[in-house]
Design goal:
Distance between the termini: 26 Å
Number of helices: 7
Largest sheet: none
Strand content: under 5%
Order of helices and strands: HHHHHHH
Oligomer: single chain
Helix content: over 70%
Amino acid sequence: MNSYLLFVSLLSLTFVAYARIGTPDAINLSWKRFWKMSRTESFGFDDDKIRPETQTFLLINFFIAFSLSVYLFLLSYFPKELAAVLSLIWVAIYITSQMLNFRIALIITDQWHLSTQLADINKQIWSFSGLVYLSITFLWLIYGQAHVALRSIFLAVLIAAYIWRQVKAWRACHQANLEWYYLILYLCALEIMPVLFLWHWFSGEYN
């Protein structure tokens, strides 16, 4: 089983290598963009520094590394087959919700001009966090499922990336002078409630 997981990890690492071939400082740029809190028109990757295909490779790495990290986390609690199914479902819901929730909010509030900036925030978070998840995956394969600290590290990275995404999104909306009650409505209806629902369902179904 570990041989298959190692192959998937190496495949993800290959996409990172391709990203670096296209843009040698892609990792450094991902780090800077992850932390950058600039004006909304400056969000995203610099077109003159990183190529679109490089960004694509980093996002593919995120999907693979994140999916594998979720699977390895769930593998500590569920059989292999069930962990695989649950990880695919969870990752699909997680990524889809982050792609759609702000778009729904912008349609409701008639602030569609912010869609590009907020979509770029997702790319910034995913591109760099994918590198972190890939590192966690390799550590997991080295130390095995018995290493409790890795589960805590994975959860810490997941929560931190989620919170930082909200901070950057709120910053962008604030700079665009979006009304504060729209921000609260967005946060409660499209961010907090879905997470609480999934957590309640997951805890009640499998505890």
